[in-house]
Structure formats: structure tokens, C-alpha cells
Amino acid sequence: MDSVRKQIEQRSNDIRERKRMLTFAQKQYSDTRNQQANQELQIAKGRFVAVSCNIISCNLIISRSIRLDDLRRRLTPTRTALLLTLSKIFPIELLSPPDLLFTILDVPLPIPMAANEPAPPLTMPTHKDITEEAVATALGYVAELLQLVAAYLGKPLVYPVVSIGSRSLIKDNISAMTGPRM
Q1: Are residues 44 and 100 in the same domain?
Q2: Is residue 104 part of a domain?
Q3: DSSP 114
Q4: Per DSSP, what are the bridge partners of residue 122?
């Protein structure tokens, strides 16, 4: 009988130990599940924040794109008005149709006579009002007009026009030499 009682007592102790181990394991499992759930929640929150930021960024880009399109639509009539004003300030008119001689601000503006000529002629026997000064003046007006048109259209000139006193020149920044060899 004693041995049976000892066996029963031993088995009761084993059962209590197993219950304790099972309770400990359940607690650890529960803690691990809670940690995992918290990590998944943090990851989900991070993704939500990232998606929210992307949505906000996209909305900002879209709203700015719409505003830019609106500004471009509103800018076209302004540009047109500015170009019309320039055509009145710097009128270019045909002076002599057979010679294709134009004027800008009533100053003769000859064009090169042949396709291989680099510049317009400085004098013309048929037109006494074409002189070197008149051609320089006309080209200066054209340079100023060209610069204003480029600015109004928002297109920078590859070779900017520089006004120096009563003369203008086209500045070649691309092939300009600098340094002692200049």
C-alpha cells in the first residue's frame, strides 16, 4: 500500500509539474504572440505612414501639375499681347519688294545677297540710305527684338545678345577662349 501511495503521490507531483510547465509554456507562447502582434502592428503602421506620405506626395504633385497647366493656359494670352506690343514697337516692313529689302523702325535692314554670304551688304548702289551705321543700327534693333521675344517665350538664347553702347554683339560662350592664349 505504501508503494501504491508513493506511486500516486509521485504521479500527482508529475502532474503538478506538467501543469506548471504547461502554464509556463502557455504564458511564453502568449507573450511571444503578443510581441509578434505588436511587431506586425508597428510594421502595418509604418506601411500606412509610408502609403499616406506617398498619397500626400502624389496629391501635392498632381495639384502642382494642375496649377502649372492653369498658369500656362493663362500665360498664353499674355505672351500673345506682349508679342503684339513688340510688333508695334519694332515694326518690320517691306521697303523694296524686288530687292527683298525690309526696314525695322524705318531703318533699312538688308539681307545677304547670296546664300554663301555671311552678312548683309553694308552698302547698296540702288539704295543710298543703306550705310554701315544704318545696318549696324538695324541689326541692333533686331538683336534687341530677338532677345525680348526669347524672354517672353521663355526660351533662352544659345548665343545671348549683348548690348554694348550703341552696338550689339552675339556672345559665343561655347567656343570663347579664355586664359593666356586669348
Answers
A1: no
A2: yes
A3: S
A4: none
